[in-house]
């Protein structure tokens, strides 16, 4: 723990350890505020420069939005860099797990709106987050939701639809179907699918699609939403892994049966329009914010 301590920050404990770094809690001695310090490596285990770290810093330096966790400071340490953020006491994942204080419908609506505003801001900047999930959505003491963990974020080329990106992104349960079928040409709609999964999880209390492998994940999506129709999504047949596996035909489940506690049709309608197979027909963040659910 000692290596984190600088003349300005005094470490008070460990918060957690993610794929891309250790996170500790510290006191900013200049402001007397609690902060979170994320230690990231500059080099990969193979000795090359870490693209995750560079992309995370680049994405965060471009952001100035109340619904995105702000990067306050950067300083070098023995093995890489330390990124300093405001300390957030809660994650959406933690709130969903808290059975003593379940989310009320107003919380769900409030958090969805904040998430959409943050995603809209990122997409306007030309940034795909590529790992939206409850564990990466932090909640302040005042109840503001902020998008965090930009280790997989990527600037996307708005004017180059042929540009290829890695399909090895997003946590499986929140991964869009085009990526599960191996797409390398994709864009902001992958984040919108993840937002739909997060909204569904808030409404249900449990994840909507929780596969243990990519094939099982696709099978769950198809069993739930029904088999995708190629006349509705013509590009489906061109996806790299489309012909590698056949799934039994499914008519899907009724949305009402998936959300038995929902009495509000708008909640289900918004979820359905985010969890649409064809990425071109999926709502954008700006469109979702205009949905009746928020009116």
Automatic annotation (TrEMBL):
Top-level EC class as recorded in UniProt: transferase
Residues annotated for ATP binding in this entry: 43
Keywords: ATP-binding, Cell cycle, Cell division, Cell projection, Cilium, Cytoplasm, Developmental protein, Kinase, Nucleotide-binding, Nucleus, Serine/threonine-protein kinase, Transferase
Primary location recorded for the protein, binned into one broad class: other
InterPro entries cross-referenced by the UniProt entry: CDK, CDK20-like_STKc, Kinase-like_dom_sf, Prot_kinase_dom, Protein_kinase_ATP_BS, Ser/Thr_kinase_AS
EC numbers, comma separated: 2.7.11.22
SMART domains the record matches: S_TKc
Recorded catalytic activity of this chain's protein: L-seryl-[protein] + ATP = O-phospho-L-seryl-[protein] + ADP + H(+); L-threonyl-[protein] + ATP = O-phospho-L-threonyl-[protein] + ADP + H(+)
Single GO biological process annotation from the record: cell division
Subcellular location: Cell projection, Cilium; Cytoplasm; Nucleus
Signal peptide bounds: none
Domain of life: Eukaryota
Pfam families named in the record: Pkinase
Molecular-function annotations in GO: ATP binding; cyclin-dependent protein serine/threonine kinase activity
Protein kinase domain sequence ranges: 9-294
Stretches of the chain forming a coiled coil according to its record: none
One GO term describing the cellular component: cilium
Family: Belongs to the protein kinase superfamily. CMGC Ser/Thr protein kinase family. CDC2/CDKX subfamily.
Official protein name in the record: Cyclin-dependent kinase 20
Originating species: Hermetia illucens (Black soldier fly)
């Amino acid at each position: 723990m000692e290596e984190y301590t600088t003349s300005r920050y005094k470490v008070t404990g460990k918060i957690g350890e993610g794929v891309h770094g250790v996170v500790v809690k510290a006191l900013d001695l200049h402001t007397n505020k609690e902060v979170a310090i994320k230690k990231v490596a500059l080099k990969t285990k193979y000795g090359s420069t870490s693209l995750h770290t560079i992309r995370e810093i680049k994405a965060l330096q471009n952001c100035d939005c109340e619904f995105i966790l702000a990067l306050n400071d950067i300083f070098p340490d023995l093995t890489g860099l330390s990124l300093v953020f405001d300390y957030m006491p809660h994650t959406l994942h933690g709130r969903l797990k808290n059975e003593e204080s379940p989310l009320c419908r107003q919380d769900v609506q409030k958090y969805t709106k904040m998430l959409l505003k943050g995603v809209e801001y990122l997409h306007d900047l030309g940034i795909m987050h590529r790992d939206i999930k409850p564990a990466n959505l932090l909640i302040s003491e005042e109840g503001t939701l902020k998008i965090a963990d930009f280790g997989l974020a990527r600037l996307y080329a708005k004017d180059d639809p042929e540009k290829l990106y890695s399909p090895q992104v997003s946590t499986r349960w929140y991964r869009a179907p085009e990526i599960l079928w191996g797409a390398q040409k994709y864009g902001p709609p992958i984040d919108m699918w993840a937002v739909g999964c997060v909204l569904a999880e808030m409404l249900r209390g449990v994840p909507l699609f929780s596969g243990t492998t990519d094939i099982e994940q696709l099978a769950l999506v198809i069993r739930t939403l029904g088999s995708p129709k190629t006349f509705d999504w013509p590009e489906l047949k061109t996806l790299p892994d489309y012909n590698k596996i056949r799934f039994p035909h499914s008519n899907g489940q009724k949305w009402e049966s998936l959300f038995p506690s929902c009495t509000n049709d708008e909640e289900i309608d918004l979820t359905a329009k985010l969890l649409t197979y064809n990425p071109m027909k999926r709502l954008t963040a700006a469109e979702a914010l205009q949905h009746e659910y928020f009116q």
